[in-house]
Please model this.
Amino acid sequence: MLSLAYFIPIAQANLFALPAFLLRFSQDPFSRPEYRGRCSTCHINPKGGGPRNAFGTAFEKNKHIVTPDFRLAWADHFLPSTTSTVMPTGGGEIKATFLADGKDTILEIDGQHYRLNEKTAKLEKIESQEAAKLAETPPPPPTATAEPKLPLKDQPTFDHYLVNLPTTLPYQPGVYSMRFTHRFENPVLGCGQNCSDIGRLYGLDGFSFSSFGGEVGITRWMAATLYRSPLDTTIEMGGVFQLLRQKGKEPFSASARVSIEGQNNFQEHFTTNLVFPISRSISNVAELFVEPMVSFHANPFASQALPSDPKGITRSNQGAIGLGASIRFRPRTAFVMEWTPRIAGYHEIGSRNAYSFGIARSTNGHVFELVLTNTLGTVTSRAVDFGSERLALGFNIYRRLHGSGY
Model:
């Protein structure tokens, strides 16, 4: 017959092979045994991964820490108490029952019951019936208070971009933000007979440009960015500096962005961009943006232009002012719009000022935008100079990842 000692190392190996947060829950002395070691405790999929269930979402919001208040709020996942083994003493026996509220301990000494309150450092004698009731039924969970609405000046927009224009939303140290943009090439509106029809699913069957990048907060006032677009295989990298935040006596928010674009995977035709987003919130409903910007060497072919060519394509640099707005009509849903008229410098023949508009929807960790836009460019300079007379469908996805703990 195999002894119990044979199974202990196996059980320990299985326990420590669990994901870190599930292991933390399973090792809590008050966690119910039927929930320990099961991915379905936190995830909808019994095999783990993917969307979390209600408990998993709450555990995540609690920074994956088991606290007394968290136990009380999720009493179905935790035992109301746990009892130590009986210890013999010179005068009899002693046993301790620890309550899940983290405040009280019931001591049983020679058949007499005592309540030890750790916060008030008081010890009082109680009847056995009261001791049994405390051990079986935890105190009611703390009363949930209504979460106050955040003023828009404290959380100006859903993410760090409207559509292509950057916002003034502050970055947090150690927080990573991923940005994915997708633009369909076939137009859906504004081009007469050349527009896509239902047979082409209004542009969904056509060619598309998918771009991807990320940002990370370095300090409360500084962040680094990296982004790549297949349009001219351009890589853009740079930094963000928070200058002002609309709070207290500050009437508006402002930041400065510096970036360098390099075509052919950052090997040629380098463009330097300076963007100064400025925003002002209106109550907790809307936010308006004004963004002066300049791109140096935006036209890599200026030196090849002929004297007879229009002045717009003979100039190397480009100046523009971005105008944008975000208007919330639901707590997690907003209408976004932006327009970027060029005011000086490079102007490609036949190009139009870029504009975009759409709907943004925020979830726990994502922001999804469905937009109509007249520009396929999403890097800073190309988003400005690549406007056309045709509107195409596109979407943006943002995902925020905390360095520890989303």
